[in-house]
Please model this.
Amino acid sequence: MKLTSYTNYAMRSLQLAALKSPNLVRVDDVARIHNLSRPHIMKIVHELGKAGYLETVRGRGGGFRLARPAGEIIVGDVVRITEGPLDVVECFNREKNTCPLIGVCVLSRKIQEATAAFMAVLDDLTIADISANKGQLMDRIAPLELPTTGQTS
Model:
């Protein structure tokens, strides 16, 4: 099972918002800390805002923060939004399936079970859980938050 970078960036954005809560986080902060593309983070923050996970504040001094408590944001739900259907193999999608073994294939059933187990673990995980070791995470983030030479605060 492999998730896209888009989902990883979404998780990193939510995690940083949880760590900095209730303060605003800037898109530039996420991009700098995680060495990510600013336009990608902007797109992710926009999507997470539309989904009700982030509150966004426009303008100078703007940014984003969690729109609800971190303990109420289920990682599995976020994965479903950012990944869409987890059609690990072709036969998971009945409209696009061309496999003649559908319905009798043990491999297909086992892959479906594995996918369900994978999502069950993520459904039991919240943004609060992935931010619980705040001290350790902030220690790693602190040196990365320093502005690069030539920038002003």
